[in-house]
């Protein structure tokens, strides 16, 4: 039996996946960027700061604060434990919102820039 090198991230993945059934889930461990902060001195955890992007139909008809509360509720144990999650940055979208944003980004990239040198 091998022990995971990312138990906090693994727990987050399982809890979010089971509860929210996301169509997309990305978890970024940014702990190394914050290890020098005073609040992190003495902490042996390498999993304290995360950015999480969740696309889920469970967010339908909910405002961002309610969506974030859903995620905080799922991860309350991980946030409460010593050496647990210290900071959690969330991006929560419905599949429709994600599709609309991606379509807009595609349209923005496809917009031709006027060639001033040709004039």
The value of Rg in angstroms is: 19 Å
- Beta fraction: 15-25%
User: Count of helices?
Assistant: 4
- The N- and C-terminal alpha carbons lie at a distance of 68 Å
Number of strands: 3
Low-confidence stretches are: none
Tell me about the largest β-sheet. Answer: 3 strands, mixed
Tally the structural domains.
Answer: 1
Q: What's the architecture in CATH terms?
A: 2-Layer Sandwich
Structural class: alpha+beta
Question: CATH top level?
Answer: Alpha Beta
In short:
With 119 residues, this protein is of the alpha+beta class.
Describe this protein's structure.
There is one protein chain. With 119 residues, the protein is α+β, with helices and mostly antiparallel strands. A three-stranded mixed sheet has the order 1-2-3. The relative contact order is 0.17. The protein is 39% helix and 17% strand. The model has no long low-confidence stretch (mean pLDDT 85). It has one domain: 2-Layer Sandwich (GMP Synthetase, Chain A, domain 3). The protein is built from four helices and three strands, in the order αββααβα. It starts with 6 loop residues before the first helix and ends in a 9-residue tail after the last helix. The longest helix is centred in the C-terminal third of the chain and has 16 residues, at 95-110.
């Amino acid at each position: 039996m091998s022990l995971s090198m990312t138990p906090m991230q693994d727990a987050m993945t399982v809890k979010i996946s089971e509860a929210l059934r996301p169509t997309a889930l990305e978890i970024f461990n940014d702990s190394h960027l914050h290890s020098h902060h005073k609040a992190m001195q003495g902490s042996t955890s390498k999993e304290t700061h995360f950015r999480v992007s969740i696309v889920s139909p469970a967010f339908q008809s909910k405002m961002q604060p309610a969506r974030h509360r859903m995620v905080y509720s799922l991860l309350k144990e991980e946030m409460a434990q010593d050496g647990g999650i210290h900071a959690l940055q969330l991006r929560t979208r419905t599949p429709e919102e994600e599709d609309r944003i991606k379509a807009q980004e595609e349209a923005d990239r496809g917009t031709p820039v006027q060639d001033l040198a040709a004039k």
